[in-house]
Amino acid sequence: MKNKNNNMKKLIPILTVFLSFFLFPSTSLGEWKYLTSTSDNNDFYVDYDRIREKNGYVYFWSKNEYKNKFMDKYRSSQGYTMGDCELFRVKFLDLTLYTGHMFMGDSERITMKDEWNYVTPNSNIEKVLKSVCEKI
Predict the structure, then answer these.
(1) Is the pLDDT of residue 21 over 50?
(2) pLDDT range class, residue 69, cuts 50, 70, 90
(3) Cα–Cα distance between 47 and 133 in angstroms, integer?
(4) What is the pTM assigned to this prediction?
(5) How far, in Å, CA of 25 to CA of 28, rounded?
(6) CA proximity to 65, closest of 45, 95, 93
(7) Number of domains forming the structure of the chain
(8) Terminal-to-terminal C-alpha distance of the chain
(9) How crowded is the C-beta side of 111, counted as CA atoms within 13 Å?
(10) Residue 18's domain spans which residues?
């Protein structure tokens, strides 16, 4: 039971990051395009060359470069997201955190819950999803 509580405590900050910004993409050599920054200068990028559309949904990779360490350990992250451009919501499918910038160093991969998150107005995830939806 103690291990389960520790795992949940680890997931809370990660889910917070997902919901308050929008992260993460593939370690491959995609063409990352800068999109926006948070108030504490974390930079968000999207790989527009890898946007896919299937059954009315968009799938895309994003990355986040942290100026200050996230969770006292991580400097970058990448994620794969499913977006619904009609209802303006997202499902975070996969997240990998890295101890170094640009996907370097040790990594930790996290599979996210299979649930929709509605996009908060004027948030960074809104900027990301809007930008991706405009590309399809």
Answers:
(1) no
(2) confident
(3) 13
(4) 0.74
(5) 9
(6) 45
(7) 1
(8) 45
(9) 1
(10) 2-135
